[in-house]
User: Fold 50S ribosomal protein L20 from Candidatus Aphodomorpha intestinavium.
Amino acid sequence: MARIKRAVNALKKRRKVLRLARGYYGAKSKQ
Assistant:
């Protein structure tokens, strides 16, 4: 069960990072 919990946390974290990365790259390409 711990493994599954960890995977869920990793997914949440990754989603957050992806959103940040998208905004960062989007701003970069606009320049």
The CA atoms of residues 12 and 23 lie 17 Å apart. Residues 1-31 form one domain. The chain has one domain: 1-31.
